[in-house]
Amino acid sequence: MFSELPERKPKTRKAEKKKKTKLYTNNIDQYLQCSDIIDFDNESVAQLADKLYSASNGETDFIRKAFEYVRDHISHSADIGADEVPCTASQVLKAGHGICFAKSHLLAAILRSRGIPAGFCYQKIVLNDDADVPELVYHGLNGVYLREHDKWIRLDARGNKEGVNAQFSIDTEQLAFPIRTDKGEQDDFTIYPVPDKEIIDVLTSNNSRAQLWAVLPMQLEYYNAIKTTESENQKI
Length: 236
Fold this sequence. Notes:
four-stranded antiparallel sheet
């Protein structure tokens, strides 16, 4: 997500029990909606989706092509030193770059344009391994439904570079940043139907990436809502 993020040091990992994704809501229509942010009604976004679909051999192949397009052809803003802060899918496509959250908006829009359910996932990762006090920041990626396999998978279109190698995989996740729980990193396997409000607020209220980096949210609206619900349930 961040250009400042140093290359991760190799770590021997114990075998972990495979975790499964879960949906925030069982209303599948919410993972197909067009919105101001996921604006696949934009002509350029729709045309790109149609172009990728026409070149694909089935729906799963289209999902792979869409993922690889956003990963490889839409740069991560930090990797190219871009200071503009696009947010909506059409803005990201026009700019040709975006940070992780913004790129996830474009991938979701491309997939939803062709009727494929897609949502949003979040992780908390260490910003700087060499810092005396590690700072955790949010990272955004996608959850996508594969009809041909009747399963949801997570895809990370952040963009590859040295030390980052995210790939399309049906059976074994290969995301940009493997989670290191010993460093306090957190993985949320929930797939949300809309981007988190806190993320949208910071993307739309800051004019430069330099400003954005200083005010990235420490807590997401989804998690605040979940905590509130849990607290209310305990009172009953």
